[in-house]
Write a structure and sequence with these properties.
The structure holds 2 protein chains of 2 kinds. Residues 219-223 and 611-727 of chain A have low confidence and may be disordered. Chain A is built from 21 helices and 25 strands. Helices cover 65% and strands 2% of the residues of chain B. The longest helix of chain B is centred in the C-terminal third of the chain and has 34 residues, at 286-319. Classes of the chains: A alpha+beta, B mainly alpha.
């Protein structure tokens, strides 16, 4: 017995030894391949991603401007359809798909046969809930009917079923207001993982959620289980955008552009007490739900004629946010910086008086240059406030001459010029290379800079700086994000006013508010910017573009309402208005006014008279005479004759003196009378219509020509050289 | 210690043997089992029950109970329960009938293997585990009782024929347990008998039959001899890659686990395949995860531990005071040995897949309890071994009549008194 037992033991030992050999063999022969298989099936494995919903972007009241719709991807499990042991799926499934979605049956069959082993064929994307339900209904109906079917013997005979189809959830980004705030919002990629332009791009990290996963495993009971790790949805952004104001702004930009057109038109509406951007728009419009379509900007014929490169360029231009990405010379609006800086430095006081004699010699008498005020006859004796109201270049030059380069450059820095404001949008320009710095600013640069020429700014820089000028000197960071909420609505982050720095004193601020009120009440825009019933403060700006002398202008108007304690700032910039008087900033004033008229009652801004203002529609076609763009008299060369009211938009007044306020350098008297000028008629008592206009324009041309001759870069015209030539 | 002294010394005061080597190896293997059950099941248990200790905890509880059972049984004189061999035999038959033909039988995963009340399945158990013990005890009893005629064809036929209905009932739903029962019965007869040729011939015929069966499975399907699922398993065994996404999944994933382990493995707890890829990783397939985590080295160590256990059982069988004790231990040895070989063979796809657990290590309540009971029997036999020539213990009747009673005297080098 012992020997037999030993034999049995030996047999078992040998068997175990043999199995050990098998183990070693598996490892040596297949080890590497199996190790790779293990890693690959672990990483891809049986898990599928559960896509997180992208966070919503809401307006300041919490209504969504960008939200998500659940959509479904149709997945065909060909392996299941062909190999299911219990049911016959192919026929009924193919016909159900045809019935529900209209797919070609033959094509479906071919696909299923071709990919017979595949368990995951994504056949269709972004089906709606209704479409999915329609299919589910058919499946339910067919399967119930077939299951109930019996043959003669009463046995359930029909094995045909609809099956092997499932739906994968995905989210589709929806922008319910289509083109509203299109440049601010930007658009998300189709899978919701990335944002392009605007807030979608800037806050992409907050907006994208964390995908969950669903994976299958086979439990100890032998069945397949599905485990779900929930997706973490993206954060909700509450922005400062006011959809009503944004809508008003976009409507009026469109009306202006439909009536006249411009190269670019930008409007920024801000709350000066917090830096919140209520609205921001340019004339570029696109439907966020179809952001690649150019159809809102071009006609079909135009699009059809474009080359691919042109289409790409047109798209990039359309998506680009003019208000933060493009720079221009601010013109006379910058005079506010000069005056308040000088007041804070004690160089001038509200009681200071200046004498404008029509121009100023800059630099040494032999090499210097004579730069003219736009009003060649000279404003005469004027108080500090009057210099602002008259938009007097001469006085500005006198002020900065006392101030010196160092202080002036310092104040430009304080006002945030030449640096990014940090607004929460991608693509902001800083214009740092387009302003003068301590090491390269010469006296002529200082002189022209004093009234807003020869340096570049962005709209958001100007609007933010003006906010601080009218609110008592507090520079708040301009921003669009108000609050961040998680998907339950809990506030995670609150973005209240962020005070960046103090710019000017309250006294200077108060003075300038009064001066801005004066501009609208009695100054350069008294007829085109005033809104009945409200005390509107404002400042115009006109800058001729490079190359000077070709009659292309950037006109602007910034308003603060109510002037005494502004609650809202509206800044309008029109780049190359396609009108008969492109240098007339009344276009900007009028656009600004039409916006103010609609938003001031909405904002419950306090009125002076208590009367509700009557809305008007300056660019509409029916209510007022409109300049006919095709009118030959509207051409630049004929501006001398343009002194009849019919040529003016409604509300335009010939007495709007600053319409010709180019505020530009006028330093070339020798050539002053030679060139024809693009100048609207003026009825300033002291001004000779033609002469004045011609002088102003020509002086500019002269400076420009000199500049061109010098081959200077676009950003910094060289006044000294110009002066040298002409002297 | 009083406890140990009492283990060592019987009532009559003579010095008794107690196989601490066996006890140690049992403790080692079962604790290692808890470790591996935890390692293999923590992930899935967390997903399913949010409790990583779900399986390991239950295993520990069952083990504690099983340990008590083992010690208690080891202190019982095995002659007491071998007298009840026929009772156990009848009970086993009844249980198998109940499982197969009464409402008390519970079907899980298409296999009717459990007995218990419906709706209260935590109290269910697999009677096949009891059948194994009953068969071992009955065979030992019968062989010892009829040892004179053990070499006759007639007795050998009777010893195979009587449990046959029971074994067939097991085979109906549990091929692997049926094979183990057959191996136990045949093995015990083989060890007890002096004949060799007839066993060699029978074994040869069995191997030939199995080969024929495998070569002609298609015909067998037509003849309805094997069930469909069993044919499927043979096909999978022949080419698991062809069924990678269906019935071959388990085998193939187990092979991936073994193959990716290398010589020293990925490290304890570092298996990837247990993360939902190898089904029943804590149960039938646990050896594949041992290979993945501890490598060939760890796997061979485990195999050596089993060999050590079997060797201790052989020593006990060889030194048992009488043939009954000897045969009891032989039955246990064959059971454990065959089960280990079958399990590893299944995991390595050496034989077709059949659900079989790895003794002491796999998760499973019933099998663990009965396994510990069997170990109690073996320890009980070892405890009857007298190491010092003291007053002669009372001789059982059958031993006096045995023609070739096993050596009663224990060789000095094997005693660990």
């Amino acid at each position: 017995m012992q020997r037999k037992l030993a034999f049995a033991f030996l047999a078992i030992t040998l068997a175990l030894f043999a199995l050990s050999i098998v183990l070693a063999k598996i490892n040596s022969e297949k080890g590497t391949a199996y190790a790779q298989t293990v890693l690959s099936q672990y990483s891809s494995g049986s898990s599928t991603t559960v896509i997180a919903a992208r966070g919503e972007i809401c307006d300041r009241n919490g209504s969504p401007l960008a939200l998500n719709e659940k959509v479904y991807n149709l997945i065909i499990d060909a392996h299941e359809i062909l190999t299911n042991e219990d049911f016959d799926y192919l026929d009924e499934t193919v016909s159900a798909l045809h019935e529900a979605f209209g797919y070609e049956e033959a094509e479906l069959r071919a696909l299923i046969q071709e990919k017979a082993e595949s368990r995951y064929i994504r056949y269709a994307r972004q089906l709606s809930e209704a479409q999915k339900e329609a299919f589910d209904e058919i499946q339910e109906r067919v399967n119930t009917a077939n299951a109930a079917e019996k043959d003669e013997k009463g046995k359930k005979s029909n094995k045909k079923r609809v099956g092997g189809i499932w739906f994968e959830t995905e989210y589709k980004r929806i922008y319910p207001y289509k083109d509203l705030a299109c440049e601010l919002l930007g658009f998300a990629s189709s899978d919701g993982s990335a944002g392009n332009w605007g807030l979608e791009q800037y806050y992409n990290d907050l907006l994208v959620g964390k995908n969950g996963s669903s994976f299958t495993y086979i439990g100890s009971d032998g069945f397949t289980h599905r485990e779900l790790v929930e997706a973490e949805n993206g954060k909700t952004l509450i922005t400062t955008i006011d959809p009503y104001i944004q809508g008003v702004v976009q409507k009026h930009i469109k009306e202006f552009n439909d009536a006249y057109g411009s190269r670019n038109t930008g409007v920024v509406v801000m709350d000066p007490d917090s830096g919140e951007i209520l609205a921001m728009a340019s004339d570029d419009r696109f439907d966020l739900n179809d952001p690649y379509s150019l159809s809102l900007m071009y006609t079909e014929d135009q699009i059809a004629q474009m080359t691919d490169e042109q289409v790409t360029a047109a798209r990039l231009d359309m998506w680009r946010n003019y208000c933060i990405s493009d720079t221009y010379e601010p013109g006379s609006t910058a005079k506010a910086f000069t005056i308040t800086a000088a007041m804070d430095e004690g160089i001038v006081t509200p009681s200071s008086y200046f004498t404008c004699d029509g121009g100023q010699w800059i630099g040494p008498s032999n090499t210097g240059r004579y730069i003219r005020c736009w009003y060649h006859a000279g404003h005469g004796e004027e108080s500090l406030k009057q210099t602002f109201i008259n938009s007097c270049n001469d006085a500005m030059m006198q002020i900065v001459a006392k101030m010196g380069v160092e202080k002036f450059v310092n104040y430009q820095k304080i006002f945030g010029l030449g640096r990014k404001t940090g607004v929460d949008l991608p693509g902001e320009a800083d214009a740092a290379s387009l302003i003068y710095h301590l090491d390269n600013m010469r006296v002529t640069d200082l002189a022209t800079n004093s009234f807003g020429q020869n340096f570049n700014v962005t709209m958001i820089q100007m609007a933010s700086a003006y906010c601080s000028i009218v609110n008592g000197g507090k520079y708040y960071q301009p921003h669009l994000l108000k609050r961040v909420l998680d998907s339950d609505g809990t506030v995670l982050q609150s973005n209240d006013a962020l005070l960046v720095r103090e710019t000017i004193s309250e006294d200077s601020s108060r003075f300038l508010r009064q001066a801005m009120l004066g501009v609208v009440e009695e100054g350069t825009s008294r007829n085109s910017a005033r809104v009945e019933g409200y005390s509107v403060g404002g400042k115009t700006g006109t800058a001729e573009k490079y190359p000077r002398g070709n009659g292309k202008y950037v006109v602007s108007f910034i308003s603060a309402v109510p002037a005494e304690n502004p609650e809202v700032i509206v800044y309008v910039v029109i780049d190359e208005p396609q009108t008969d008087r492109p240098n007339s900033n009344s276009w900007a004033c009028l656009l600004n006014r039409s916006i103010l008229k609609e938003i001031l009652p909405y904002l419950n801004v306090y009125t002076t008279s208590g009367e509700a203002p009557t809305p008007d529609d300056p660019f509409g076609t029916g209510t007022e005479p409109v300049v006919d763009p095709e009118d030959p008299t509207g051409e630049m060369g004929d501006t001398f004759t343009q002194d009849d009211n019919d040529m003016q938009p409604a509300g335009y007044d010939q007495n709007a003196a600053d319409e010709v306020d180019p505020g530009v350098a006028e330093g070339v008297p020798a050539r002053g009378d030679a060139a024809p000028a693009a100048q609207p008629a003026q009825e300033e008592p002291a001004a000779d219509d033609g002469g004045n206009a011609g002088d102003a324009q020509d002086a500019e041309n002269g400076a420009e020509n000199a500049e061109n001759g010098d081959g200077a870069a676009q950003d910094a015209p060289d006044g000294e050289n110009a002066g040298g030539q002409t002297d | 210690m009083n406890f140990l002294n009492r283990l060592r010394r019987g009532r009559s005061g003579e010095k008794r043997f107690y196989d601490y080597n066996l006890l140690f190896i049992i403790i080692f293997l079962s604790l290692f089992g808890i470790l591996m059950v935890y390692s293999t099941s923590a992930y899935v248990a967390t997903l399913q029950f949010h409790n990583p200790y779900r399986y390991a905890g239950r295993q520990a509880l069952v083990l504690a109970a099983g340990f008590v059972v083992m010690i208690v049984i080891s202190k019982i004189d095995y002659h007491f329960y071998t007298k009840l061999a026929w009772v156990g035999f009848a009970l086993a038959l009844i249980l198998m009938v109940l499982v197969n033909y009464s409402p008390l039988g519970i079907e899980r995963n298409g296999k009717k293997r459990w007995l218990g009340l419906h709706g209260n399945e935590s109290l269910s158990f697999q009677p096949t585990e009891f059948v194994k013990i009953a068969l071992i005890v009955w065979m030992a009893y019968m062989i010892a009782r009829h040892v004179k005629k053990i070499d006759t064809w007639r007795l050998q036929f009777v010893l195979m024929a009587l449990p046959a209905p029971m074994i067939l009932l097991v085979l109906k739903n549990n091929l692997s347990s049926g094979i183990i029962l057959l191996a136990i019965a045949a093995g015990m007869i083989f060890v007890a008998s002096r004949r060799k040729m007839r066993f060699a011939v029978i074994a040869g015929i069995a191997v030939a039959a199995a080969t024929l069966l495998v070569l002609n499975i298609d015909k067998l399907v037509g003849m309805h001899i094997l069930q469909e699922y069993q044919i499927g398993r043979i096909r999978v065994w022949q080419n698991p890659e062809a069924y990678a996404r269906s019935t071959g999944w388990q085998v193939l994933q187990g092979l991936y686990a073994i193959g990716s382990g290398g010589i020293f493995g990925k490290g304890l707890g570092a298996s990837i395949q247990k993360l939902g890829f190898v089904p029943e990783a804590e149960n039938d397939m646990i050896f594949s995860i041992i290979c993945e985590e501890l490598g060939i080295f760890g796997a061979v160590c485990v195999i050596l531990m089993y060999l050590f256990l079997l060797w201790r059982l052989m020593v006990i069988a060889n030194n048992a005071p009488d043939l009954t004790g000897s045969m009891l231990t032989v039955g246990v040895l064959i059971h454990i040995g065959v089960q280990v070989v079958l399990n590893i063979a299944v995991v390595t796809n050496t034989i077709p897949n059949t659900g079989i657990t790895l003794p002491f290590i796999s998760y499973g309540g019933t099998s663990m309890l009965f396994l510990m009971a069997e170990m109690g029997m073996a320890l009980g036999v070892s405890n009857r071994i007298v190491t010092e020539e003291a007053p002669q213990p009372e001789q059982p009747r059958e031993e006096r009549t045995a023609a070739r009673a096993p050596e009663r005297r224990v060789r000095a080098d094997r005693t660990r008194g």
